[in-house]
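Can anyone check this?
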Amino acid sequence: MAQQIALKLAVAEDRHAALQRHALLARAAREQQRLVSIYYDTGRLALRRAGILLRLRRHGPSWQQTIKRQDASDGGLTLRPEWQAPYLNHFDFSHVDDAALRDWLQRDKIAGRLAAVFETSFRRTVWQLAPDPDTRILVKLDRGWIASSGRRDTISELELQLLSGSVDSLYLLALELAQTQALPPLLLSKAERGYRLFLDTPPAPVKAGEVPIDAADAPLAAFRLIALDCLSHLQLNHDGAVRSDDPEYVHQMRVAARRLRAALRMFRPVLPASFAEQLTSPLRELMQTLGRARDLDVLMAEIVAPVAKALPDEPRLTDLAGAVTNRLYAARGNIRHVLRQTGYSRLLLTTGSLLQRAPFVGPPAADAEAPSLLQFADRRLRRQLQRIQELAAAARADYPPSLHALRIGIKRLRYAIEFFGPMIPGKAGSTAIKRLAGLQEELGQLNDLASAGTLLMVCAGRDPHLREAVTLIGGWHGPRHAALLAAIPDQLKRVRGLKLPRLA
């Protein structure tokens, strides 16, 4: 059995030549290969469900059989065992030294029901780099296609495979290559993309999942899992934000960035001194870029569109909707530009690199006074609840910024409870999250209405025709705005009555 350690990165299809001109690669010897692979599974995809890959790959006149475990990717970094053997016209699993896996593969209901599911064909350019005497890294640049069931998708990716040395050397090399080239981590493997083609699974925005932390974890270990989940959440929506006009991709990227910022605040007392500082500025810039498009999406869908639908014969509303749409398309274009720049790639790679180093990996430091995760979570949640109640005491219905600050505080507490969800027994966590989400939604609607006027006036510019449309919209939403304001005392009462779920 071999252990493969690799960092996978996405490469824009039109940037292969530029990447190969990078000084590190231009002066190294290279080899080119044409690789054709066929992936196998049972009719019910038993291998996929078990997290196993079975592949035949052609090497010149012969074929090689490879078995891999599909272990989870840590922000593009994969560590997985694999077993290789020559293919002699039939599958042979006798060389697999994991007895349980070997016996499972040899069962008739597995070995006797294998069939081709998808194939890949790509040209691979390979360099072997030795940044220092103890480190050897294979750099593999792939370009080609994946095909299944009459459907096809492109392959355009870079893999840095560690032959010897530390994992940190992979990130150092990736960051150096990403100085002049956008190389965001790639989370979906060729195999996963092949299965999606086989199943005809359409692309869709990805929401945050539950992070598998445990009360026995140290606070730093829990933060690492949460931060890696935030990176995955961010990156799994990247392609959709670049290629699609579906606003949900941008929204989910924004949520992922906010969750990461919330985690940085929540765990700040135990994080290394310079950790947050390296991420705060680029993360804030990314959120501002995503936020501009998201604000315009909400403005169009929640503020302008309902009025335009209610008054379909009002030309001023049609013209204002056009002005908002033009700004929205410009904002989306700016997102696509930013996500293709080196700064975005370097933010992801820097964060991933830091999370693969001490004190996040390796034996924990001996500290008798260090809090357990349970103690830490209880303390931080109580502090967050206290902060919310202070904001509620200072909030005033006639001062929108105070309500906006309260909404942000509620959102941070909601994220924190989501992070610690596995430590909350029963339905107490989901009940608390639902209650907080309801308060956040109601205050959010009020904030959207309060900020809509300013943003609409920016879209209207100096055109009196469009400014009249802004007045129409304000009047139409007036009753809803008044109703939301009237509900503020009740919402503040609900905030004062909030209780934290019990941790276990």
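Reply from J.R.: I decoded it. The mean pLDDT is 93.
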